[in-house]
Write a structure and sequence with these properties.
Layout lengths: L2 H6 L5 E10 L2 E11 L4 E5 L6 H8 L7 E6 L2 E2 L2 E4 L2 E4 L2 H8 L2 E4 L11 H11 L5 H14 L15 H13 L5 E5 L7 H16 L3 E5 L3 H7 L2 E6 L2 E6 L1 H6 L4 H10 L1
Parallel strand pairs: 3-10, 3-11, 8-9, 9-10
Antiparallel strand pairs: 1-2, 1-4, 4-5, 6-7, 11-12
Helix pairs in contact: 4-5, 4-6, 5-6, 6-7
The protein binds adenosine-5'-diphosphate and magnesium ion.
Magnesium ion binds next to helix 2.
Length: 262
C-alpha cells in the first residue's frame, strides 16, 4: 500500500454526521454532514444567521448538539465512549479536550490589562502549568512569527485591530492546538489591516495546521482553501473545491449569495 493510500484513511479531524442544533423551538442546524481531513484548510461561507458560528461553537464544546454525531480527531464531542456505551463528559474532561482546539473570534477578546506577551503566556502558565521562563520564550517566538516581535510590551489598547487579532492567533497557538477555528477573523477590521491577518493564516496553513475558517474573504478561500462549504438556513447547500464552488456554483442559493459578496 502506498503512503498516499494510508494517509487517505487518516481519522478525520472533524466529522459531522446529521448534526442538528436547536435553541428551544428554534431549529438552527438541520442535519450537517461534512468531514475535515487533517492538515486541511476548510472554509465555511453563508449568509448571516445560517448557523456557521453555532456549528463552530459545537466543534469547540461551547454548545451541545441536539442530534447526530460530531467528532473531533475521532472522539465524540461531549461524550466518552467505553465498551460501546456513551458517557457524558465531565467539565474537567471537556476542558481537557478544548485545550487542543484554538479559536479566534471576530472580536479579538484579549485581556485588556495584560501586554501582548502576557496575553500569549497566560494559558500555557495557568492551564498547562508551564514555567514562566519557558512560556515567555515561546510567546516571544510566536509573536515574532505573527510579525509582532517589536510589540511584545504593548497593551491591546496600544495595538491596531489587525495587530490585536494577530496576538489572538498567537495566543491560540501557544496551547499547541491540533485544530484552529476562525470565526470571521477579519470582519471587524479596517480593510487595510485585513491582509496582515490573512498572511498569518496563510503561513499557518502552509505549516500544515488544520483550520476551519468562517470567512467572507473569497480570495483567501480560493487561494488557500482545500474545501469550501456553502451553508444556508442550517444545511450544507453545496461543497467542493473552492475554485469549483466559486466559479461554477450549481445551486441557485449559492449563485445568489456569491453574486452579493464577490
Ligand atoms: P451565523 O454565524 O451563520 O451568522 P449563527 O450561528 O450565529 O449564524 O446563528 C444562527 C441562528 O441561531 C441565529 O438565528 C441566531 O439568532 C440563533 N442563535 C445562535 N445562538 C443562539 C442562542 N444561544 N440562543 C438562541 N438562538 C441562538
Ligand atoms: Mg457568525
Amino acid at each position: 500500500m502506498t503512503a498516499g493510500k494510508t494517509a487517505s484513511k487518516a481519522v478525520p479531524m472533524v466529522k459531522a454526521e446529521g448534526v442538528h442544533k436547536s435553541f428551544g423551538t428554534a431549529h438552527i442546524l438541520k442535519g450537517i454532514d461534512l468531514e475535515v481531513a487533517p492538515g486541511e484548510v476548510f472554509c465555511l461561507i453563508g449568509p448571516s444567521g445560517s448557523g456557521k458560528s453555532t456549528f463552530l461553537r459545537c466543534i469547540n464544546h461551547l454548545e451541545q448538539v441536539s442530534a447526530g454525531r460530531l467528532s473531533v480527531d475521532g472522539e465524540l464531542v461531549g461524550y466518552r465512549e467505553k465498551n460501546g456505551k456513551l458517557y457524558e463528559l465531565r467539565d474537567r474532561e471537556v476542558a481537557a479536550r478544548r485545550r487542543d482546539i484554538g479559536m479566534v473570534f471576530q472580536r479579538f477578546n484579549l485581556f485588556p490589562h495584560m501586554t501582548a506577551l502576557e496575553n500569549v503566556m497566560e494559558a500555557p502558565v495557568q492551564v498547562k502549568r508551564e514555567s514562566k521562563a519557558g512560556a515567555r520564550e515561546r510567546a516571544r517566538k510566536l509573536l515574532d512569527r505573527v510579525g509582532l516581535g517589536d510589540k511584545t510590551g504593548n497593551y491591546p489598547s496600544q495595538l491596531s485591530g489587525g495587530q490585536q487579532q494577530r496576538v489572538a492567533i498567537a495566543r491560540a497557538l501557544a496551547m499547541e492546538p491540533k485544530l484552529m477555528l476562525f470565526d470571521e477573523p477579519t470582519s471587524a477590521l479596517d480593510p487595510e489591516l485585513v491582509g496582515d491577518v490573512l498572511d498569518v493564516m496563510k503561513d499557518l496553513a502552509a505549516d500544515g495546521m488544520t483550520m476551519v475558517v468562517v470567512t467572507h474573504e473569497m480570495g483567501f478561500a480560493r487561494e488557500v482553501g482545500d474545501s469550501l462549504v456553502f451553508m444556508d438556513d442550517g444545511v450544507v447547500v453545496e461543497s467542493g473545491h473552492p475554485r469549483d464552488v466559486l466559479t461554477k456554483p450549481q445551486h441557485e442559493r449559492t449563485k445568489s449569495f456569491l453574486s452579493k459578496v464577490l
